[in-house]
Design goal:
Keywords: Membrane, Transmembrane, Transmembrane helix. The chain crosses the membrane at residues 36-55, 67-87, 93-114. The radius of gyration is 15 Å and the shape is elongated. It has one domain (2-115). The two termini are 16 Å apart. The protein contains 5 helices and no strands. The longest helix has 28 residues, at 62-89. The chain has helices at 2-21, 25-30, 34-58, 62-89, 93-115. With 127 residues, it is mostly helical.
Length: 127
């Protein structure tokens, strides 16, 4: 349940960011990786967040979880880079807020994947 709540933000925010980046040239000029690259980063982060939740739910093996966690941390950094690009230009602060929350959420999902070794192991969160 914990990871589903953290994945809800990127699941709704990152498709909106990908749609906002694409049509207008002024928004695409603020994007750190260009329009197409920023869309790829947003959609890749979304896919990895959903894969991370699925791995935590049903996959007991450690190494796939660690690999996805490392990729989630990488995309979290890329999302933070995009967020800083939008914050420095100051035109699309709403997009920057969505990217910041998604960067935080993907980082937390990655942390949770390596925190618990297997899906059957009880979580220590809240203790």
């Amino acid at each position: 349940m914990f990871l589903i709540l953290w994945a809800a933000g990127p699941a709704f925010e990152l498709p909106v960011v990908a749609l906002v980046i694409s049509p207008s040239p002024d928004v695409a000029s603020d994007a750190a990786f260009g329009s197409a690259g920023s869309q790829v980063v947003a959609l890749l982060s979304l896919a990895l967040a959903l894969v991370g939740v699925a791995l935590d739910w049903k996959w007991p093996s450690v190494w796939p979880r660690r690999i996805v966690a490392a990729l989630l941390w990488l995309t979290s950094g890329l999302l933070a880079t995009l967020m800083l690009g939008y914050l420095t230009h100051g035109t699309q602060t709403g997009v920057a807020v969505l990217l910041g929350h998604s960067a935080l959420a993907t980082g937390v999902i990655g942390w949770a994947l390596v925190r618990r070794v297997a899906a059957g192991q009880p979580s220590t969160l809240g203790r």
